[in-house]
């Protein structure tokens, strides 16, 4: 009888200790969640608008460059361009400076990847892609516009837009775009279109739940 009481007492003590530890853990978790979550009204804005429609099948790119550098980590996921059907797909990608851009040969055809910095006119590399499944990686080291050509198939053409900003998107064919979570503040809006006269930059303010931007041209 005595031994049974002692055992049950020991169990009760252990149970109480476990419950106390669980409570401490739950409180710690609640506190850490409270710190990690953005404060209500921290100023995330949805930026929407319309810029120039696609030219020659290449859609516009919209970039919002913050006045002070954003502390958003660069994605470890590469930006990808496939060579398939004798074309580069997609024809326009945006990559952060420091983010890997991957070229894939997706078919049993000899292609190459000839990359030109359009700001300087310099060829960065010209790599043969003779085998299906071949991958070539490139990491932009500065913001800029890069043309991608295949010298075997002159109709093959693509563009890589490199930016330091994490706030960018490729617009739809009709020029409409949305950037869902942009912190409020001052930005340089940069719109790229393959037709140079449709590219422009201007200062914009992002504020409130929604900011609407139109190309103004
Ligand atoms: Cu080719």
| Oligomeric state | single chain
What number is the mean pLDDT?
Answer: 86
In spatial order, strands of the major sheet run 5-11-10-7-8
Q: Return the string of H and E elements.
A: HEEEEEEEEEEEEEEEE
CATH level-four homologous superfamily name of the largest domain: Carboxypeptidase-like, regulatory domain
Q: What is the rounded distance between the termini?
A: 92 Å
Large-scale geometry: elongated
Q: What's the number of structural domains?
A: 3
Radius of gyration: 26 Å
Spans of at least 5 consecutive residues whose pLDDT stays below 50 are 1-11, 27-41
Assess the beta-strand content as a share of residues: 35-45%
The hetero compounds bound to this protein are: copper (II) ion
Short overview:
With 217 residues, this protein is an alpha+beta fold. The chain has one helix spanning 2-36, and strands at 44-50, 61-66, 79-84, 87-89, 92-96, 101-105, 111-117, 123-129, 135-138, 144-149, 157-163, 167-170, 176-183, 185-192, 200-206, 210-214.
3D structure, described in words:
This protein has 217 residues and is α+β, with helices and mostly antiparallel strands. The protein folds into three domains: 1-37; 44-70 and 165-217, Immunoglobulin-like, CATH 2.60.40; 87-164, Immunoglobulin-like, CATH 2.60.40.420. It is 16% helix and 44% strand. It has one helix and 16 strands. It has one helix at 2-36; strands spanning 44-50, 61-66, 79-84, 87-89, 92-96, 101-105, 111-117, 123-129, 135-138, 144-149, 157-163, 167-170, 176-183, 185-192, 200-206, 210-214. The strands form four sheets. The protein has a five-stranded mixed β-sheet, with no helix packed on it. A four-stranded antiparallel β-sheet has the order 12-2-14-15, with no helix packed on it. It has a four-stranded mixed β-sheet with strand order 4-3-6-9, with no helix packed on it. A hairpin with a 7-residue loop joins β10 and β11 (157-163). The protein is elongated and about 50 Å long. Residues 1-11 and 27-41 have low confidence and may be disordered. Bound molecules: copper (II) ion. Copper (II) ion is lined by residues 86, 111, 150, 152-153, 156.
């Amino acid at each position: 009888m005595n031994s049974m009481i002692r055992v049950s007492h020991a169990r009760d003590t252990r149970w109480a200790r476990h419950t106390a530890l669980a409570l401490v853990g739950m409180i710690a978790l609640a506190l850490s969640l409270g710190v990690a979550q953005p404060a209500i009204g921290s100023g995330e804005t949805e930026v929407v608008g319309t810029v120039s429609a696609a030219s020659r099948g290449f859609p516009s790119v919209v970039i919002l460059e913050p006045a002070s550098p954003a502390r958003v980590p660069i994605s470890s996921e590469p930006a990808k361009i496939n060579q398939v059907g004798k074309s580069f797909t997609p024809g326009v990608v945006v990559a952060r400076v420091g983010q890997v851009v991957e070229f894939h040969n997706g078919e049993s055809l000899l292609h190459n990847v000839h990359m030109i910095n359009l700001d300087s006119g310099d060829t960065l590399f010209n790599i043969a892609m003779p085998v299906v499944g071949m991958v070539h990686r490139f990491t932009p080291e500065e913001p800029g516009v890069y043309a991608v050509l295949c010298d075997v198939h002159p109709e093959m053409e693509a563009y890589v837009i490199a930016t330091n900003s994490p706030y960018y998107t490729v617009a739809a064919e009709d020029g409409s775009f949305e950037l869902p979570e942009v912190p409020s503040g001052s930005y340089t809006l940069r719109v790229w279109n393959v037709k140079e006269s449709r590219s422009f930059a201007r200062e914009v303010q992002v504020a409130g739940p929604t900011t609407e931007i139109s190309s103004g041209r």
